[in-house]
């Protein structure tokens, strides 16, 4: 695929951020995150060739989400200086058609639809970049690259949907109130500028990995839930199948640990608004004896109980010093344990209603994570709703050896479908 850059510019908020809001402190939950990125792409089958509407509405949206137009400062705060976000326009050169791209497991393996390289955002300390790419067929992709330091899945989803709502209305649109407050009163930060960059290097090595999409259709999930018997959620049912297949293929001597982000907004007392900006989630971790991996009823009950116990007090009591994921992967001195600890990292963007995101020319035909993820020996799974809202697309990243075993698992074959197109 060949992509030609049309323009690259900086989009700033439409209104100036007041001086008293210029510093957004990072909470402990922000600091706990590996300094990595969220990259997600939306495809539309018809779109205008002029981006003026998108630029104007992006500027208006950034006035509500002003920290995203700022710069990270010493892993302690965000300078809400209205520095702006990178906005790239590009043309996909024929004969590549958007329909061909949508069939791929790796949607954009070379990162040509992504607005910039991650190291560029680290160098200028920016938080958000966007690329709009036009296809000759009349389709369009919009790719978002968020820096995770102040953006979790809920924050990203709310920003994207808010931008769409504003873009659909010439008068600026109406969006839900965005809540930006000092989260350090709830989750006090570390008082130094140490970052989790070392954990990033350990978690994501340069080992070659594959990414494939496995689609669990709504009817298959319903059948699975009925078979399990205790009517787990869609996430719990799909988790059980994927975990079982991964565990069955694990190598002798491995200690396989599952990590799951849990949104805390509705679990706090009192609850926090859904529109609250920041990393307001915690990561739970667990594993089970190998002999239990095919007992889906037992797994779904246990994972349900584990997630249900998470609330604000749980986070404060269980993790008073933060750094949950770092402690889960290291022995405390920055080096891997002598045991072969591997992570099964699964996160869900389901139920965020992303497929309702309309910028003025209809809803997306596909939403997908994008970018080449070198997970090393770890396994990374991202879950997204299918377009009908009933099924789940599981984007699975693992080594080729693990993938060869995973896609031959009987339950994966029974409940998921996947294309051989690469």
TrEMBL record:
One of its GO terms (molecular function) is acyltransferase activity. It holds the Pfam family Transferase. It comes from the Eukaryota. InterPro entries: CAT-like_dom_sf. Keywords: Acyltransferase, Transferase. Belongs to the plant acyltransferase family. This is Uncharacterized protein.
